[in-house]
Write a sequence for this structure.
């Protein structure tokens, strides 16, 4: 049992400002991408029964909460982030009975289950959208419908350039507007054209969403990870016109290199964001206990994170911010840059400072939209550097104040896919971006774009979970009727759960220790955080303090031997012995020797009790 072994942080210690402390304040969350986790019926796609069959592994790892990426009924245009029925399970994944079984089996093991809630948009195959195509239907105003620009004839995009209501581009390429011949109008989609944005201005939309959320909570789920929840409130002028729309008082931004303008400044953290989230809290969560809410929050600043997650404001428990995974590129993600460590430190410091007094931070480096961190900021070029850098990066993240999220396979040090051809990718974002940037707008060469997708594409984290060394990595049976929906990484022969499970030096064993430390030491979960040597280009060091307890965290974020920077060296000067070493990526005697020599070996990281 995991949760039952975990003692909640005493109320004398401040976490997010609430009393009593929330049950999750020293919890660790594990994200499952069901499509790629475990297939049980040989169709090459992961399923709910597969998750249930792996619960003992997750309980052994010691995590407290499982977040499932969407398993609802969906045409799978965006792998389930396009939902056509919120109250059913997609047959790919199983049935509602399978979901009930998963909930019951997880709860038996002390594991909670948080579902993905995708309500900025639905699928275009959702009954609400179908009905909305009829201007006389009661759902007519459930989406963002707009007529073609006066003086133009509407039609297929491209047939009549400039007929779209404004210049906004979609995050998945092309215009954010799609023409619907049945209705004779365009609808807004910030993501793919199969993901029309719901109109949250309409109270009936909000009521339907809250009813659906209550239905799931009554069924036993323990909360929601809310997909792009900070894009639901759009900025309009007083007459309800969007920026750049004909007759709008608000101007659109200029178009970028692909020919479209960016909707984000007008859709992210919009004017009614707080109102909608507070209403949701009242209508769905008031009177309930033991739940967790985390909002995906593109475009939200650290300062606003403090407000939204301050329990006094009754909105969300925590948010995922993105500045720390968005900055290491040249403007677009397809032009990656190496890690600028001082910049990363300053962003993380901003996050930590913003929740000093109230509110809470989530901690993540990986998810189903990000490349694998060991390939991105670590070094997967040799087995030794892979294991060392995976541990160092895990220690770095888990020693911050907040709630850590582990993405499936991260605990094994799984790497990027290292695909070399476009036909190996499945993700619509990568495929559309290639078409748009290479073939249509011609703003990036094929070679450079393929390199960009290899470094930053979302499929890097979506290859099947590596359970063992068999032909399909144990994700699906060796004699399965169908191959996995996306290739298994060939390195599964060496990197897999079966090989790491009993190995005390594995990345898996190290993550187990990190999780246990958070459960056992309130200073890890809740202690004050203070950055050291902000400008050092290789060493990421900070302290954690709670009462008389003080931890020094040092991480060499590079593959070379480096000197300890000044502030860190001063703190490490007092006689440190092996008994001061709480956890380290090399062994404790090695950590003591390194600190005494005022240096760190490649990817050496340690937590020292001062
Ligand atoms: C979020 C999801 C991503 C999805 C998008 C649209 O960013 O994490 O996977 O494509 O929203 O729903
Ligand atoms: Ca299956």
């Amino acid at each position: 049992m995991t949760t039952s072994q975990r003692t909640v942080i005493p109320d004398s210690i401040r976490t997010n400002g609430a009393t009593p402390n929330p049950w999750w304040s020293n919890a660790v969350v594990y994200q499952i991408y069901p499509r790629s986790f475990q297939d049980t019926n040989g169709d090459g796609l992961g399923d709910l029964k597969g998750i249930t069959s792996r619960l003992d592994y997750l309980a052994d790892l010691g995590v407290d909460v499982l977040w499932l990426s969407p398993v609802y009924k969906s045409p799978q245009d965006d792998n389930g982030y396009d939902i056509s029925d919120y109250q059913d399970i997609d047959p790919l994944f199983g049935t509602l009975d399978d979901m009930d079984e998963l909930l019951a089996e997880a709860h038996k093991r002390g594991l909670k289950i948080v579902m993905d809630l995708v309500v900025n948009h639905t699928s275009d195959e959702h009954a609400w959208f179908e009905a909305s195509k009829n201007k006389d239907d009661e759902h007519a105003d459930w989406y963002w419908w707009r007529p073609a620009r006066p003086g133009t004839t509407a039609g297929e995009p491209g047939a009549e350039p400039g007929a779209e209501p404004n210049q906004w581009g979609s995050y998945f390429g092309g215009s954010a507007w799609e023409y619907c011949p049945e209705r004779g109008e365009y609808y807004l989609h910030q993501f793919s054209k199969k993901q029309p944005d719901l109109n949250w201005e309409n109270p009936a939309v909000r009521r339907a969403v809250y009813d659906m959320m209550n239905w799931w909570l009554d069924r036993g789920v323990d909360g929601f990870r809310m997909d792009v929840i900070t894009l639901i409130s759009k900025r309009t002028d007083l007459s309800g016109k969007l920026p750049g729309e004909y007759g709008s008082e608000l101007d659109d931004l200029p178009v970028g290199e692909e020919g479209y303008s960016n909707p984000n400044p007008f859709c992210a953290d919009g004017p009614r964001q707080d109102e909608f989230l507070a209403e949701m809290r009242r209508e769905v969560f008031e009177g309930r206990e033991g739940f967790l809410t985390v909002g995906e929050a593109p475009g939200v600043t650290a300062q606003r994170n403090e407000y939204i997650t301050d329990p006094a404001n009754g909105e969300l428990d925590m948010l995922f911010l993105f500045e720390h995974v968005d900055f290491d590129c040249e403007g677009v993600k397809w032009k990656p840059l190496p890690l600028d460590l001082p910049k990363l430190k300053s962003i993380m410091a901003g996050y930590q400072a913003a929740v000093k007094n109230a509110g809470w931070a989530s901690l993540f480096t990986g998810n189903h939209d990000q490349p694998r961190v060991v390939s991105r900021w670590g070094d997967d070029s040799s087995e030794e550097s892979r294991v060392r850098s995976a541990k160092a990066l895990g220690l770095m993240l888990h020693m911050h104040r907040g709630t850590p999220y582990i993405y499936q396979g991260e605990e094994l040090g799984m790497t990027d896919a290292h695909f070399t051809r476009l036909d190996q990718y499945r993700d619509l974002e990568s495929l559309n971006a290639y078409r748009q940037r290479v073939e249509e707008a011609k703003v990036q060469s094929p070679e450079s774009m393929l390199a960009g997708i290899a470094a930053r594409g979302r499929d890097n984290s979506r290859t099947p979970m590596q359970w063992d060394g068999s032909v399909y990595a144990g994700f699906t049976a060796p004699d399965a009727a169908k191959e996995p929906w996306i290739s298994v990484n060939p390195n599964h022969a060496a990197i897999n759960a079966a090989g790491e499970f009993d190995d005390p030096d594995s990345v898996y064993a190290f993550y187990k220790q990190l999780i246990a430390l958070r459960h056992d030491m309130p200073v890890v979960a809740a202690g004050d955080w203070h950055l050291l040597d902000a400008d050092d280009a290789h060493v990421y060091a900070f302290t954690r303090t709670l009462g008389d307890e003080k931890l020094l965290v040092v991480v060499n974020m590079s593959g070379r031997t480096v000197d300890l920077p000044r502030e860190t060296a001063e703190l490490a000067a007092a006689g440190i012995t092996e008994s001061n070493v709480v956890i380290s990526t090399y062994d404790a005697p090695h950590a003591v020797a390194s600190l005494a020599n005022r240096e760190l070996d490649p990817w050496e990281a340690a937590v020292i009790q001062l």
Observations:
- The two ends are 32 Å apart (CA to CA).
- The mean pLDDT is 96.
